[in-house]
Amino acid sequence: MTEQITPFTQAIKINNLEPETAAMLKAAFLPFYEKAKEWQETASSLVVTDETQTDLMLQARTARLALKDIRVQADKARKNLKEDSLRYGKAVQGLYNLIEELICPIESHLEKQEKFIEIQEANQRAILVKQRAKELEPFQEFVPYTDLGQLSEEGFQKLLTGCRLQAEAKIKREEEEAAEKKRQQEEHCLEQERIRKENELLKARIQQIEQPMPDIQPAPAEDQCAVPSATVQKVQKDLDALHAWVDSFEIPAEITLVNKGSEWLKYEIENKFEAFKKWAHQRITNPIL
């Protein structure tokens, strides 16, 4: 005989419970469900429409209290079953944990024996990677991303040599750049010193010209063309102003460059700029050139 499908039986069926568990739940809760269904018909028929219907009000109270008692009893059954379920779940988990603690160490040991060759190879590869990384450490900025453990010895030596050459080239380039900068600074200092000496010599000559003439006979005709003292002072003042003006020429603040070729172009421009200043001072010092 096919069991009639009701909301109660459907609620048990959708959870895919074991037959024994489903039977236990049915036995525990079906009596409460059936009693509630019986009272449902009675409760639906009780409709109070007038304040004089006190008998219906009393029947409603009786039905409500009966349904409350069914609900309270069903809730007690639910709590008891839930507590049993929790204890059951803990027992299941505890027994599994016991078996797992027994098996896992044995599994691990057997896996190590089974994969002895792979483990040894992995250990050797880890040691090799560590050694190679230490050798490459001084040239870290030139090391491309690569699996050091997979490289052959020949491949690693090529990589190491390439990184070492790049590092040496960088050091040489930096030394050359520093030497060039020092040379330019020294050349600039020498030029400034030469200009200073030339200015001192020019001032000495001007001072000689400005010395008062001795009280003697008028100068020969050819001396009448000598430059007056006031004119010489004005000329010297202009020359000093021109020297100061040229010294004020400066290249703007440093510029950040990435390409080394651009750095060399920058140095070339700086050299040309200093050469121009040198030529300008020479031109001012010797205006008749």
Rg, alpha carbons: 54 Å
Strands, count? 0
Shape: elongated
The poorly predicted ranges are: 215-219, 221-225
- How far is the first residue's CA from the last residue's CA? 132 Å
Computed structural class:
mainly alpha
Overall mean pLDDT score? 82
Please trace the helix and strand order, writing H or E for each element: HHHHHHH
Individual helix count? 7
The helical percent reads over 70%
Q: What composes the largest sheet?
A: none
Polypeptide structure, described:
With 289 residues, the chain is mainly alpha-helical. It has a domain at 7-45 and 53-114. Helices cover 76% and strands 0% of the residues. It has helices at residues 7-13, 19-45, 54-114, 116-136, 153-210, 229-247, 260-285. The longest helix is centred in the first third of the chain and has 61 residues, at 54-114. The radius of gyration is 54 Å and the shape is elongated. The model is unreliable at 215-219 and 221-225 (pLDDT under 50).
How are the secondary structure elements laid out?
Layout: H1 7-13, H2 19-45, H3 54-114, H4 116-136, H5 153-210, H6 229-247, H7 260-285
Helix pairs in contact: 1-2, 2-3, 5-6, 5-7, 6-7
Quick recap:
The chain is 76% helix and 0% strand. It has helices at residues 7-13, 19-45, 54-114, 116-136, 153-210, 229-247, 260-285.
What would the keywords be for this entry?
mainly alpha, 289 residues
